[in-house]
Amino acid sequence: MNKKIRKILEAAIQAPSGDNCQPWRFAVQGLTINLYNCPERDQSLYNFQQRASLVAHGAVLENLELAAVEEGFKVSIILFPDKEQPELVAQVDLAEDVRRTDPLEEAIYRRCTNRGSFAGGKLNDTQTKVMISCAEGYDGARVVLATENPAKNQLAAIAAKNDWLVFANRPLHQFLFEQIRWNQTDTIRTRDGLDVETLALSRADRLGFPNLRHWPLVNFLNRFGLAHMIGRKAQQLCRQSAGLGAVIVTGSQPEDFVLGGRVMERVWLRATAHNLQFQPYAGIAFLLQQVREGGTGDLTLKSVAALRQVQSDMQQLFGLTDDEVVVMYFRVGEGAAPAGRSIRHRLDDLLI
Ligand SMILES: Cc1cc2nc3c(=O)[nH]c(=O)nc-3n(C[C@H](O)[C@H](O)[C@H](O)COP(=O)(O)O)c2cc1C
How does pLDDT run across 329-352, given as a tens digit for each residue? Predict the structure, then answer.
């Protein structure tokens, strides 16, 4: 493979994906790159109609374009070019062009999920503006950001439901613990999933956490408020963060989720370029879509009601319309570097 194409694809696969499942494969022919989805890589309740994976593909395409422009290519992307092949997410054609540099490209390898606590403080006007403006030029998407109370506190309560739901619902709990890689040997063997180091657990939590993989224990502890305690902890992390935001798209076609992923990646890279830490909360967004579209996905009745409440809270907070869909919530702020970084599959193992 052409050295430049390899470099471009190496940048593309630094993209984030739900629980680091990396649901992508590539076929390269000359200057054409076909990007495929791999549904088997994420069969979780979260990945309703493969939407979480499509958001991840949007991030892949954003990285790919930034890296290709840096290597001196013009990029043209056709989404879902072949109706007979629904897994073919995009056909990317490169053409020689002048080399251009984008400051976001430099952030591709530094971007990381940070689940630790941030330093507090405030975002300055420039930081706020550049993040909100990430959707400019991308018709059908917008970014909202709350930096002051009461909006920030309200959004913190919404985002924290993400973590509460995981410990209140067996299928979500099961999926989380299947994705955790408990040691280096496992991480390197699978090259996917959530390395326990990236969870930013305190020393005390690190000791007790492995016991929580047993659902009967979690179910028992929930009588004493375990899931609520975990939710409150997440709420605290969110409240301490300088900004809380969401990426919103208009529509719920596959293309809309790819677009949401592109914008999400731009916001994340922009935050990284400004040396800000970032954590997405997305599970809740996809579960809510499933509930709104008629499925309860084995969630408890209380969880379904809480998700419906999120929809009306977002309508009130950001004027969310019935056509609009949140693809991701996030918290952002200054802070120490992440506790760990996630591994990726080797590029050669992703080529068809
Ligand atoms: C669609 C999507 C959903 C995600 N949901 C969450 C989430 O709810 N909570 C979380 O902490 N991280 C979430 N992440 C972050 C991933 O876990 C993370 O990107 C992945 O483990 C790779 O790590 P990295 O971002 O540090 O490269 C999500 C990422 C994507 C793309």
Answer: 999 999 999 999 999 999 999 999
* Sequence-ordered alpha helix ranges (H) in 241-282: 254-273
Does pLDDT of 220 surpass 90? Answer: yes
- pLDDT at position 295: 84
* Distance separating alpha carbons of residues 108 and 62, to the nearest angstrom: 10
The conformational region for residue 298 under phi > 0 = left, psi -120 to 50 = alpha, else beta, is: left
Task: Read off the tokens for 298.
Answer: 């084995």
- Give a yes or no: residue 156 inside a domain: yes
Task: Characterize the bridge pairing of strands 73-79 and 324-333.
Answer: unpaired
pTM: predicted TM-score of the whole model, two decimal places: 0.97
In a domain, 115, yes or no: no
Ligand 1 shell residues, CB under 6 Å: 16-20, 52, 55-56, 112-113, 115, 162, 194, 279-283, 341-342
- Tell me the best of 20, 44, 109, 272 to mutate to test the pocket of ligand 1, counting ligand atoms within 8 Å of each CB and taking the most: 20
| 91 & 162 share domain | no
The CA radius of gyration of the chain, in Å to the nearest whole number, is 20
Same domain, 141 and 85: no
In 3D space, the residue among 56, 90, 71, 89 whose CA is nearest the CA of residue 3 turns out to be 71
Provide the pLDDT for residue 1: 80
Tell me which residue has tokens 């890689």: 181
Domain limits for position 292: 125-333
What pLDDT sits at residue 341?
94
Please list the helix, strand and coil fractions of the chain in percent, rounded to the nearest 5, in that order. Answer: 50, 20, 30
CATH at residue 188: 3.40.109.10
Instruction: Report pLDDT digits (tens) over 296-320.
Output: 878 999 999 999 999 999 999 999 9
